[in-house]
Design brief:
The protein is an alpha/beta fold and 571 residues long. It has 22 helices and 15 strands.
């Protein structure tokens, strides 16, 4: 996960004492004592009544993910008020590598290979989350409670003996263990490929062992304690990808969530990570929607605000140059030839299998695209490298431009590259273009909403919406490129369709929670409640939709996302 959520600065996170001080002095985690004290009878009654109800497992596991513990503990309380018996699952140091581990924390990666996170990160991971759930009086399961010595020995045996070239494709009883272990290792190094990393294989084997331990513990827990639902963040990497695999296989309903772009809002999905579900969700939620004049005005107001991110809590780039004419002259665009924009994404992020991708990875797509445009001097290719390569967390250790230059030392003269550190507005750049080509960026939703034709070669969420030119093979992709430049922008009907989807995406799929308070620093939000009544059924439409989705598999979609006139909802 990158998404601009900055956890502890590296120097703090590497220091156990600093992290203890941080946890003790600041509100990184919710304190449930005060709101419970204000409603002691109400809470005790709800908790007692929920015993024996439908069991729900809050399974984020990594206790130092304070933003996850904050949201999930609030959901745990809300679900308790709705009759669910809520349990939590936390790692107790059993994992040998996880998403909390990053190469940036280990100047000597060999030390991580030898010791893993046990001597530093693990020591202060579990206890803050344990304290949160203890205040609520909810049952906590620990990985170690569900692992046997045989499990640990088997995980170590497989991780040490499996041939390296078989790890990524390794499955256990149908569970895609190797895929998520590989994605976890890529995230650890913040690279799109493990090639060239001296300790890559050893780190990958650590993630494989950890993935197996997660699978063994989770499977035994779910077979012993019958849960109807499980809730976890992301659904990718280690441990969440493995947790999701096991939950689905065991027939337990899975709900995944992630912080949305807009403040106080979250995206929830059924049965899989939102990286997958947003490409395959039913069109019925938005296709026949009729936007009112107010809704369309609010949508366009919000889309304009995205340039500065004033209503978002995920912002990668603060542009200092917004004027298209000035930008065109500065980057050297020839006004006599059409410009085709190309937007990259971060190479290591969410490296999962997407069957619709036209290319095996983003770099291969970029290389072949540049080779194609070298044969099209009638066009100009304007490449914008994603600013999150340097502003995201962790920052990429494998810059895509550097990798491109290894493959193509000299780019054709009709190819222009705007690097990630540039202060030029991406929106202004795309306004100069005849069309945009994307791989996995989310900007396809915004670009189609202003009428720009978009070509999709990867896992962008705008795929499959009847709005873009989608390619699933190289042949399809290059056939689309041969049609460039396009004769016109999106027509009136297509533009209206694009805005319906954009409204659905930004307003109805991003669900607001009024008790979530954005804040500076880590985490980017906390829970603000004077008492527990704000978690009762009927107190919040967004909370009701989330709880109904978790307990009853109802769609995680706002029924009426229209904000009040003159306002942007969630601002």
């Amino acid at each position: 996960m990158r998404h601009g959520i900055r956890r502890f600065p590296a120097i703090w996170r590497a220091s156990r004492l600093a992290r203890r001080w941080y946890h003790a002095r600041f509100d990184a985690y919710p304190d449930w004592q005060a709101p419970i004290a204000a409603n002691t009878g109400l809470w005790d009654s709800a908790r007692n009544a929920a015993q024996g109800g439908r069991r729900v497992l809050m399974a984020t596991s990594i206790g130092s993910y304070a933003h996850a513990i904050s949201l999930e503990s609030a959901l745990a309380a809300a679900l308790t008020f709705r009759g669910a018996e809520v349990h939590a699952l936390l790692c107790d140091g059993s994992m040998t590598a996880c998403a909390e581990c990053e190469a940036s924390l280990y100047p000597d990666v060999a030390k991580f290979v030898e010791q893993g996170p046990a001597r530093d990160l693990c020591r202060d991971c579990q206890w803050p989350a344990e304290r949160v759930y203890a205040q609520l009086g909810l049952k906590v399961h620990r990985y170690g409670d569900w692992l046997t010595p045989d499990d640990r020995a088997e995980a170590k045996r497989v991780a040490s003996s499996l041939p390296a070239d078989q790890i990524e494709s390794y499955t256990l009883d149908g569970l895609a263990i190797g895929e998520h272990a590989h994605a976890g290792a890529l995230r650890f190094f913040a690279t799109g490929s493990l090639a060239g990393e001296p300790h890559a294989e050893a780190v990958l084997r650590r993630y494989l062992e950890s993935a197996l331990l997660t699978a063994f513990a989770t499977r035994r827990l779910l077979r012993s304690v019958k849960f109807s639902s499980a809730v976890l963040t992301h659904g990718i990497y280690v441990p969440w990808g493995i947790l999701g695999e096991v939950v689905r296989q065991e027939g337990v309903h899975l709900s995944t969530w992630n912080v949305a772009y807009r403040k106080r809002r979250f995206i929830f999905s059924h049965d899989d990570t939102y990286h997958h579900t947003l490409m395959t969700e039913p069109r019925e939620h938005w296709e026949d929607m009729k936007l009112s004049v107010t809704q369309e005005r609010e949508l366009m107001q919000y889309l304009r605000s995205r340039r500065e991110g004033m209503f978002d809590w995920i912002v990668f780039h603060q542009a200092t140059l917004q004027e298209p004419g000035v930008i065109a002259r500065r980057v050297g665009i020839d006004p006599a030839r059409p410009v085709i924009g190309l937007l990259t994404n971060v190479s290591w992020d969410a490296q999962l299998h997407y069957p619709a991708n036209a290319f095996p990875n983003m770099l291969e797509w970029l290389v072949q695209t540049c080779e194609y445009f070298a044969t099209r001097p009638d066009l100009q290719l304007l490449i914008r490298i994603h600013p999150a390569e340097i502003s995201g967390f962790p920052p990429s250790r494998q810059p895509i431009l550097q990798e491109l230059r290894k493959r193509l030392p000299a780019l054709a003269s009709n190819i222009i590259v705007v690097p990630p550190e540039s202060g030029i507005s991406t929106y202004a750049l795309m306004s100069l273009c005849n069309a945009a080509i994307i791989y996995g960026t989310k900007m396809g939703v915004e670009l189609t909403s202003v009428g720009l034709p978009v070509i999709v070669a990867g896992e962008a969420w705008i795929r499959n919406k009847g709005l873009t030119h989608d390619a699933s093979t190289p042949a399809e992709y290059f056939e689309i490129l041969r049609q460039l430049p396009f004769r016109e922008r999106l027509g009136e009907k297509q533009l209206a369709r694009a805005r319906r989807y954009a409204y659905h995406f930004f307003f109805n799929r991003m669900i607001p929670l009024p008790f979530i308070q954005p804040k500076a620093g880590y985490p980017i939000y906390n829970v603000r409640l004077d008492n527990l009544k704000a978690l009762l059924p009927g107190a919040s439409q967004g909370l009701d939709i989330i709880c109904d989705g978790i307990l009853g598999r109802r769609p995680f979609v706002l029924h009426d996302g229209a904000p009040a006139a003159g306002q942007i909802a969630g601002a």
